[in-house]
Amino acid sequence: MDPLTLLIGSVVILTFKEMNRKDYAVLTPSRDERYRNAMESCHQPEMLLEEAKLFSEYGLKAQAAMLKRRAEWRARPAELKKTHEEIYQKALTSENIPAILEIAFAFEGWTATKKASNLREHVRELQEKELEQAAREAQEAAEAAEAIETAATAREAEETGVKPKKKKSNGAASTKPFDKVDTEIPESVGEDT
């Protein structure tokens, strides 16, 4: 080949590479969709590793690393899968919130995001139960304190022979309903205008 043809071919190749390089290391919408589909739907570790290699070539190191982790997760031996499933099931029935959150964090690190999400939902439900229980206990304690106070006031009244004073109120329970207001306009007022 002559040098001019080599020069023109090199310029074309470099131009093509430069044109494709403008979105180097940019997660475009189509790349993002491909990444999400691979993470969610691909169950073959070999294909996940190929996708990881492709993303790495395009400068998307974080996505490549996650795809490699997902490939490792999918390629686990059966015994390890069984162990992970036992841990997951035990965490779903546990009430130890810090331990469940640690397990959710570990599953998230292994790219098992659905399992991590389920564990976090379980934690949220446990926290709601604890809040309801605390509110119920606070209500019961307030009622018990009021009963003790009422009994002490009654006992003091018996001992001293003085009637107990009524508690002061804000008047909300003792207010009377509004009187009906006459809204009719006398005829004489209407004629003057």
Question: How would you describe what is shown here?
Answer:
The chain is mainly alpha-helical and 193 residues long. It has two domains: 20-75, no CATH class; 77-161. It has eight helices and no strands. The protein has helices at residues 3-21, 29-41, 45-57, 61-74, 78-93, 97-109, 113-160, 187-192. Helix 3 runs antiparallel to helix 4. The longest helix is centred in the last third of the chain and has 48 residues, at 113-160. The protein is elongated and about 125 Å long. The mean pLDDT is 83.
- Count of individual beta strands: 0
Secondary structural class: mainly alpha
The average pLDDT value, as a whole number, equals 83
Q: Which geometry do the CA atoms define? A: elongated
Number of domains: 2
Helix content: over 70%
Q: What string gives the helices and strands in order?
A: HHHHHHHH
- End-to-end span in angstroms? 109 Å
Q: pLDDT under 50 segments (min length 5)?
A: none
Query: What's the story with the biggest beta sheet?
Result: none
The percentage of residues in β strands lies in: under 5%
Number of helices: 8
| Rg, Cα atoms, Å | 37 Å
